[in-house]
Amino acid sequence: MIHVSDHVKKIILISAVALYALTVSGCGAAGVDLSDEDAKKVANYSSDVVSQHNDKSDTRLVSLATVKKKYQEQLDLEIKRQNFRALEQGAEEAAASSDAEGSGEGSESGEGEEYTEPDISLSEAIGVPEFDVYYTDHEISPSYPTSGSMTEEDVYMGMTAAPGDTLLIMHFNISNTEGLDRQCDIIDLHPTFRVKINGENHTVQQTILPDDLSKYDGTVPAYSSVEAVLIAEVQESVVSDVQSLSLVVRSAESRPEYKLE
Q: In DSSP terms, which residues pair with 53 in a beta bridge?
């Protein structure tokens, strides 16, 4: 590495000061006295300028290419940060939209929309294709199980609608058509459901009922069926006249809709 000697620095200092004096006087301005510290700064800067034009010298001045590289790195980092923030915002908006859909508030009627039969069965959409899951009927009651069949255990595990609301209880059968008993573990699949009543979306409740279809975990005997339910708590006026009823199965892959009535 080649360094600029102190002798050269002195020559550069004298030349720089002389050049500065000529420049200032040429402009008609008064002369400026440099302190010893300022004079050293001028000398150091000038020596760096000389060294930068020497291919064998390492200079303290940063090259233009290095400045551009650092700027590009900072620019790329900022773009990545902005993209990440945009993704976060998109995820939050999607979650808010999903919650609004599930609540049924502000949902569109959906009347007049053409219904398309899903390509997969209800049992396949839930994740138990080895069984046959099918809808049987529905009932409307302020509580479940209904008061006539409620046991002491049901008092703690059952559901009761809030004042002004009622329960829409949808009944299903889980059928085993094979000759061996089979374990049905829907609870590990975490399916979620929405029910459409007259074209409007409503939330299907998450319960601890042993016959909750979304939480079912039990053995289905060979050539037999077990009963299961899905329950939605809605305003009484919503189910005063049920014209259409359909079930939406929500998963990461799709959201097939099954017309029940």
A: none
